[in-house]
Amino acid sequence: MQISEAKHFLVSQTAVQAALDGVPLSDLEKRMMYFTEGPDASEDPIVLNDEFEAEYDTPTYETKVSKLLHRAYARAKKENPETARTWNESIRILKKGDHYILVLWGVLRPPYDNVKLISTAFLVVALLLGIILTAEHYHFHWNRAPQAHGSTPVWLGRLLLFLMATFYAYYGVFPWIFKKSPLSPTQLFFKLFRSSSDETSDQHSGKFNQKS
User: Fold this and answer.
1) How far apart are the first and last CA of the chain?
2) Global confidence as pTM
3) In angstroms, what CA-CA distances link 1 with 7, 89, 94?
């Protein structure tokens, strides 16, 4: 099975489920399920993402399609084991790459999963903070070679701690508080890329107007 075949199978099964449930699923919503970067992209990902965000709310879309995917899979397991095997094979093929449909497939989490994630986050952060503070108190040297006499790079440990806390807050705490799915790393990249490109274009436009 090729990547395109795997995606087409999952999208078609989702469309069938949407029809059975009476849930509208537009052509653009189906095209977005094919979203990916690199050589496997079926169309320009930046153009597709911009077109989609102009019409749809991403968290709402992800929740809707995720539910359709899971209901379609449950129906396949109940009605046709062969279809369920094809489904599993499609997911296995797509897991070898970075495809947005995998985000849609994994949006739904079991009950209390967010609570477990937050608890784990606080435990990890507390553990790291304890290690760093203990190391500072006892003047522990990470590099124990005889020639190393410098102190522990405290700023590096604090930076890593800050990054981990930010990551867990964005993907664990904020979705739990605001009841919305966070943007995926790919979507964040495109937002930052587009903002940077727009700012550069505005700067060039301003310089051109000044010269004129």
Assistant:
1) 57
2) 0.54
3) 10, 8, 10
